[in-house]
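Worked Example 4.2. Consider the chain below.
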Amino acid sequence: MDSELAQQPPKIYSGEEVQAGDEDRPLIELRQVVKDYDTAAGRFVALKGVDLKIGAGEFVSIVGKSGSGKTTLINMLTGIDRPTKGEIYVNGNAIHNLSEGEIAMWRGVNMGVVFQFFQLLPMLSVLENVILPMDVCNVHSRSERQARALHLLQQVGLADQAHIFPNKLSGGQQQCAAIARALANDPPIIATDEPTGNLDSKGAEMVMRLFEDLVSQGKTILMVTHDSELALRANRKITIADGAII
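Applying the procedure from the previous section yields the following structure tokens:
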């Protein structure tokens, strides 16, 4: 990214930032993480004492059968959900101790989240969707926000589609727009849950190449996927079954 467009917004860190290649200090660490839910059928344990370390600059795929706990795991890593027991550290932050307001602010500038169903706002243009996270987190001036959003859309091959609405894009293009939005605040980590699940092979390839390019730029990517072939394109594969990493 151009230096003027890659300004780092304020981040909540409790320690020194972990850099790619720093093998002694994991970027992400889960310590004995348990997550259970009360259901009509009784207590369901989704995660069972998970220990996990992920280094900066890794491209990690998370695979497992439906109901294995892989989406719950990604929700723990992003702070979307909280552990019942255990500790979660991301870039020196004990995110299990943050309040709801603190974790929302933290996630806004430290974690880009990409969903299976894109979740682009249909009443906003593609450009406005990418600008939105910068508006919410009050990052950059208004003119800089538009310039950065256009730059990100150019990176994902959508600069010429900036002013149209998301429903005019193909599935693959919508997912690329969602990735550009996830990069708006230049987070060090991108977390994705089945990012190619609704795409054809061409769209899936477009997204995977974009992920590989982001990893080459030093981003850390966590990808939940059911596709075993795509999982192998990550640098590391984590398999989860019955709430435990195997």
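The chain has one domain: 3-245. The chain has seven helices and ten strands. Compare this with Example 4.1 before moving on.
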